[in-house]
Recover the amino acids of this structure.
């Protein structure tokens, strides 16, 4: 069975039919789904969904695009949510210099404080990094991720970037992007990541794998990501499935 380590079943896009999306995923060999927050409302919704479905787990956090809303109230709200039993990670947090709706300064402040929060509660972090590799790396170095570790979500960096994050003890997670026709470079990077440091995810409703690009993504398509990884690494699909599932269980401390 697969674990989809990053979904947004808490997103508007699933408001009408999330029970069907969950059922379809389970019927397609997905045992477990992480529901990841990106602001306070979506974090609350992630916790609510996880409390109602045994196969769902939640991460709570404020995305860099929303960093301008970050303040001490937000911090306290996340702190309360972190005490809920099904909340297993802080995320998604990080830096996104592609969209600068929130200033770099605001993004860095929110990122820093949420890493500290994760460390305080002994939770792993789910990190979003877009066009901000250098700052993400140096900020992680300064703040020091605790022993609970973390994952670089939707990894799309270079070989050098990958090795820097691996040295920090982080997992690297791949999405449907590795199936895109123009992603040859990323496939070459993925080929070299050790199996015991890999996760798979859909990041649904985004990042639909080939040939569904542009359509709403769903958790059941995590299998397409895993199958592509197996092909790239020239390993049996079963082996990639078992490894990524074991890695997700270890990182998020879920049975
Ligand atoms: Ni995401």
């Amino acid at each position: 069975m697969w674990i989809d380590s990053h979904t947004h079943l808490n997103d508007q896009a699933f408001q009408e039919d999330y029970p069907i999306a969950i059922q379809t995923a389970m019927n397609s060999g997905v045992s477990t789904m992480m529901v990841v927050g990106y602001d306070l409302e979506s974090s609350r919704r992630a916790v609510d969904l996880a409390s109602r479905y045994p196969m769902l787990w939640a991460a709570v956090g404020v995305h860099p695009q929303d960093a301008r809303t970050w303040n001490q109230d937000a911090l306290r709200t996340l702190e309360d949510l972190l005490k809920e039993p099904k909340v297993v990670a802080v995320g998604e947090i990080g830096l996104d210099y592609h969209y600068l709706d929130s200033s770099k300064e605001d993004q860095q402040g929110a990122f820093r404080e949420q890493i500290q929060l994760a460390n305080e509660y002994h939770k792993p972090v789910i990190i979003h990094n877009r066009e901000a590799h250098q700052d993400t790396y140096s900020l992680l170095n300064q703040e020091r991720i605790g022993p609970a570790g973390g994952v670089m979500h939707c990894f799309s960096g270079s070989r050098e970037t990958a090795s820097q994050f691996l040295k920090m003890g982080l997992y690297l997670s791949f999405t449907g992007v590795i199936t895109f026709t123009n992603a040859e470079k990323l496939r070459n990077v993925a080929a070299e990541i050790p199996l015991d440091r890999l996760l798979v995810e859909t990041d649904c409703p985004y990042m639909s794998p080939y040939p569904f690009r542009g359509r709403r993504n769903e958790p059941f398509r995590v299998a397409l990501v895993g199958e592509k990884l197996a092909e790239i690494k020239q390993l049996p699909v079963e082996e990639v499935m078992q490894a990524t599932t074991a890695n997700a269980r270890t990182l998020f401390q879920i049975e």
Q: What stands out?
A: The CA atoms of residues 152 and 193 lie 13 Å apart. Residues 6, 8, 36, 92, 203 surround nickel (II) ion (CB under 6 Å).
